[in-house]
Amino acid sequence: MLADLTLTQHILSVVSGAAVGFTLGLIGGGGSILAVPLLLYLVGYPNPHVVIGTTALAVSINAYLNLIPHARAGNVRWKEAVIFAIVGAVAAFIGSSLGKAVDGKKLLFLFAILMLVIAALMVRPKKVKPGDMEGHPGQFSLWKLIVSAAIVGTLSGFFGIGGGFLIVPGLVFATGMPMLAAVGSSLFSVGTFGLTTAINYASSGLLDWTVAGLYIAGGIAGGVFGARLATHLGKSSKGTLNIIFAALVAVVAVYMIYKNMSAFGIHL
């Protein structure tokens, strides 16, 4: 059931969307993981399943918009991107159907565990070999691509996330494409997975179109400012921001675990 939000909550929805877009534009990834907790705890939306369905649509639109400049720059490998998106979309539908059937508090608890994993991955040193930027054209493996897409799509649908942090290494692993091409190509899958999840949730009345629109509007504005600021920051500054953001994600995750552990009969 959709909530009847106040004007203040509508404004906070725009602010939350702007914060997500700003973070994505500034550090290039991970920001969408905060879309759910912001809508839940800052805006105060009461239904976890509607929150997941709504933010999935917002993340989807944001990904498709960010895909445009990458496509124009030739950073999208369309064949691999389409295969990954189609297989993953089927898996995302299955995953989102499972997610809808899980108790909201249990789903949020598991979501928080995923947030901790993402925070750890964000601060882990990235070892890039000289050949990784050029890629390995002969490495393409269709079965690896399909398996990777199925796993990532299921997780994306279940938690209502874009899954870019998993899609990028999945594409590199299965195709050997350069990192820049994997980042550009991943956006097509992020958008498709999010859209699939959103449609599935919307079919059950678990998507607030007004809040989604406010989130998207805020995300577009925030993304522009974040991208502009990113161009003026050095590599060391971006690395520091990445660590700070990962710490924030971890703190929010711990709070979500505390708030939702009662769903598993754990009480402190």
TrEMBL record:
Domain of life: Bacteria
Keyword Nucleotidyltransferase tagged: no
Membrane topology reported for the UniProt record: Multi-pass membrane protein
TM spans (from-to): 12-43, 49-69, 81-101, 107-124, 145-167, 179-199, 206-227, 239-258
Record has Transferase as a keyword: no
Subcellular location(s) of the protein: Cell membrane; Membrane
Principal cellular location given in the protein's record: membrane
Any one Gene Ontology cellular component term annotated for this protein: plasma membrane
Protein name stated in the entry: Probable membrane transporter protein
